[in-house]
């Protein structure tokens, strides 16, 4: 049975994104990192903790106890079934808001939000001929809200075709702060800073009571660690507190809305709850075109002719690298479709039960890592909303 | 042993620089982004201890403990977190202030080294000050607080914090000077009650000012602590670091070393595991 592994930063955290971070890299790059981290980072932490629990020791190369095969490797999760990552703020789990909310936060703290829906006319572009998402009503100074988090209640409202209440919206600033760090190389003999060895990073410092949690299953129950412990997590030698607990009601995904048909058609959205992976690149060798990612963005993640793609609201691609501990070099960058990306579909009413089965399922590659988990929601034509 | 805690009491002013300024103070101290509380970043503390290890032991020892460019070190060094902040009081001698959040975080951190300690329960209003004894009103800087006298809780808290402090004399005066404020009140002092010093650079010949700047600093008697957590399989190195820090009890952290700042006296706290 799956258990919940929950990570609390002891101070700051730093998870490397695709920005170069090697000594000698030219230019004035300012790596900011990713938060929440990608599952491949958390998988490394999970594997290490579980392997140590089975008697394996880092640095020994498996001389005394080999790393259990059930725990896989960096490219394959083995028997592990991972889900998430999610944020938990206090007692409440948060979900990335679907990219269908457009608007702004007012000085009063209230939100002025409208929904995106497919435009009436098809537009021809290099992507083909599609209905592009449009705002239902103009909001001066508004923008697509790409980094909001929603409570379960807020998420259910958005999936049902509505707008979340103010109290169900969390901005990144409500959850964590950026901390600018400067590092220098020291000349040991003179105890002075060395020329050309200055670097800057931005760590993130989670607010009080913010945790990152993932589901870990596929292994015997007694393999999970007990109690709390400090473990290394991410880059820059940062540590986090790990706590493992049983699943409860608060870990269940938000409910799918009732799928109501209009004129024999169901209009539904497919929203990524976790980043989606649609291409696999070789560890060594030339980087190829991200064909799968492009196909998923343009044709949608559901490969079923019964489901007709109408439009999509896509976030900025994530370029994820990471550090290969075994070979001590950066991993090749891979594109991920960000959580919150939403595709707008239609299907015949007779497909309702098949659509409902998709809620909480996975699309794309490496779904055992938790990538590509989707939620089903509803959308309405602009005319219907007015 | 999976880790230990290092209590750090400031013997002089300390300036853990933030690297950049956004306000009127040219050189502010580092602060936690989420709380605005002063902090000594873990990366800075680790650099200090590495340098100390290199000077007092050797480079090989330092690299074994703290790592090198192509291999991680044996221990994780957390930020040094603030626990007690001394502030002026018109009502008498200076007071050490803290707040429920810092105490709760401290107890949580103790749990990570296997030291489970209960935290006494109490409630405190925004303009109350929990003290062991005193007048009805307590002045801290320009603000006044209604005192809530509860000697047993203050003594219990002092007992909890005392292991971080090396000096016996300081431990003894802790209950009389300890004040627990509401989190919001503490945040005000952590933001605005740190000393700011004007520093000047003079022209050697004319003695005219060539540069004037303002530096924020942490006053002497601030109490911080940091956690040292072992990376799996490196328990031997953690023990060696503990021995090293037990033998050499002073560290210099932050900037302005040449003007006598940054000296802290340390005390190791071990957990039950």
Q: What is the strand and helix layout of this fold?
A:
The complex is a heterodimer of chains A (386) and B (273).
Chain A: E1 3-9, H1 39-53, E2 81-89, E3 92-96, E4 101-105, E5 111-125, E6 128-135, E7 143-144, E8 149-150, H2 152-159, E9 169-170, H3 172-175, E10 176-183, E11 186-187, E12 192-193, E13 199-206, E14 210-217, E15 228-232, E16 239-246, E17 265-272, H4 291-299, E18 308-313, E19 318-320, E20 323-324, E21 329-330, E22 334-336, E23 342-348, H5 352-358, E24 374-378, H6 382-385
Antiparallel strand pairs in A: 1-14, 1-16, 2-3, 2-14, 3-8, 4-5, 4-7, 5-6, 8-9, 10-13, 11-12, 15-16, 17-23, 17-24, 18-23, 19-22, 20-21
Chain B: E1 3-10, E2 39-40, H1 42-56, H2 59-66, E3 67-68, E4 71-72, E5 75-77, E6 80-87, E7 95-98, H3 100-112, E8 128-131, E9 137-140, E10 143-149, H4 151-161, H5 168-177, E11 178-181, H6 183-192, E12 196-202, E13 209-216, E14 223-230, H7 235-247, E15 250-252, E16 263-270
Parallel strand pairs in B: 7-11, 8-10
Antiparallel strand pairs in B: 1-14, 1-16, 2-6, 3-4, 5-14, 6-7, 6-14, 8-11, 9-10, 12-13, 15-16
